[in-house]
Predict the structure of Putative binding protein YtlA.
Amino acid sequence: MNTLRKSVHVLLCCMLFVPFVLAACGDAEEDLTAVRVGEVTRSIFYAPQYIAIEKGFFEEEGLDVELTTTWGGDKTMTTLLSGGIDVALVGSETSIYVYLQGSDDPVVNFAQLTQTDGTFLVSRHEAEDFTWEQLRGSSFLGQRKGGMPQMAGEFTLKQHGIDPHRDLELIQNIDFANIASAFASGTGDYVQLFEPQATVFEMEGIGHVLASFGEESGRLPYTVFMSKQSFIQENPEIVQKFTNAVYRAQLWLEEADPAEAAGLIAPYFEDTELAVIQTVIERYQNQQSYALDPAIDEEEWERLQDIMEEAGELPKRVDHAILVDNQFANNAAEHVK
């Protein structure tokens, strides 16, 4: 009988305790602050972002990241300016374009994710002892005019003495989503491709990677987290926590085995083989495309504008201090270990 009373007592205690546990869990979830993030595209190039989500770095900072893919720089910036998202992951050049149009609430860059161009030169044929001079007189399937990939590509070609508008047939009338399939169908002798398509083409024997535009064009704030100035001013704690999580992911990926990193972000790329994801991550790690910290230094900013200027897409240079706020990156570097 005593045993029965004890069992009933324990059961009642458990029943009374469970609601408190559930309530505590509910409170913990409610304590997370929602942050709406729009990424310009879905790409292995953005691996640190997915790692920050999957490793729980954002949650540990008290943030609930709601990630959507906004497909294109123009759409991403429009969504940010209209209040559809809080943070945009997109090329820094878009913030310059918005500022030069006379925005009352400029878009400010606060955390860098990638620090080189992410495209590769892919040839239809193998080329032993490759030199850039081999492109002269060829047909080149490029990227969208005014976009950072195309500007970095043109900058690289000019660095090697090739005028992309005179010394080769530059093809730019194909939508971004159809560039790879156009090359596979026979258009162009060379193509400028992002990963994982470059690696996939190599594996399938469709093309051969000859060079990296990232290595050739140098370091620049290629893909950056940015927000409207008003959002940053009104929510500095959120921006700091967000930057902390990004930096933790960057530190993790810097030391991570590509296979482990690939397994972690694989759910974001269901149609891509794990071996391809691993190869791409390793390639980007080796050329240090992933930024090692969130800060955007002035030299990188000026190089970005050099490339834009060379492409004829920059009417006026914008000072680093106007559109870059490194206080959050610097705080993260000082306090996050």
Remarks:
- The beta strands are 33-39, 63-69, 87-90, 107-114, 119-123, 139-141, 169-171, 190-194, 208-212, 223-228.
- The mean pLDDT is 92.
- DSSP finds 16 helices and ten strands in the chain.
- Residues 132 and 160 are 7 Å apart (CA to CA).
